[in-house]
Structure formats: structure tokens, C-alpha cells
Amino acid sequence: MSSLQGYVDRRVTLILQDGRVIVGLLAGFDQKSNVVLSDSKERVYSTDEGVEEIPLGLYLVKGDMITLIGELDEEIDQATDLSTIRAEPLPPIRY
């Protein structure tokens, strides 16, 4: 849990168990790994169109839904043209 402290006030990418990809500023977290993101967006990947970003704003994600949290390199992210990226959406994780 203390490893999340270093990500507070930084842009992160979350990959959720249902395959969604959420990008936002980590505003906080608790002992159950629930996280609060501000200025968040869901990135929807498609093989036909570019990546669509859906604004979510302030967003709470339950810790048990999170598969991966990683810091986002803002320079590279801003330099990347998401409209040119084609990719299969991530499938949900099944246990």
C-alpha cells in the first residue's frame, strides 16, 4: 500500500478487471487500495478507429477491480497521437 504513496499527484494508468483503461491524476487511496482519480478519462481502444477518450472527471475505483496501476510519462503521452493507434480492446479477466 505504501508503494502507492509515490504516485499521489501524478498521472497514472489503471487497467481494470473488466478490461477498461482509465487515465487520471491519483488524488488519493485507502488501505483497501481503493483509489480516487481526478481529471480522469477512459481510453477505449478499437481496431477500426483511433483511441476514444471519454471524460470521467473525479472517479473512484474499488481496489479489488484494479489489475494494474502504473505511472504515465506525460511527455510521451502528450506527444502520442491517439487517433492513429489501432488495438484490440483488453478482454475481461476471468477467475
TrEMBL record:
Compartments, as annotated in UniProt: Nucleus
Gene Ontology MF term list: mRNA binding
PROSITE patterns: SM (PS52002)
Gene3D superfamilies the UniProt entry points to: 2.30.30.100
Any one Gene Ontology BP term: mRNA splicing, via spliceosome
UniProt domain Sm: residue ranges: 1-75
InterPro entries: Lsm8, LSM_dom_sf, PTHR15588, Sm, Sm_dom_euk/arc
Its biological purpose: Plays role in pre-mRNA splicing as component of the U4/U6-U5 tri-snRNP complex that is involved in spliceosome assembly, and as component of the precatalytic spliceosome (spliceosome B complex). The heptameric LSM2-8 complex binds specifically to the 3'-terminal U-tract of U6 snRNA.
Similarity section: Belongs to the snRNP Sm proteins family.
Name of the molecule in the record: LSM2-LSM8 complex subunit LSM8
Species in which this protein is naturally found: Ephemerocybe angulata
Gene: LSM8
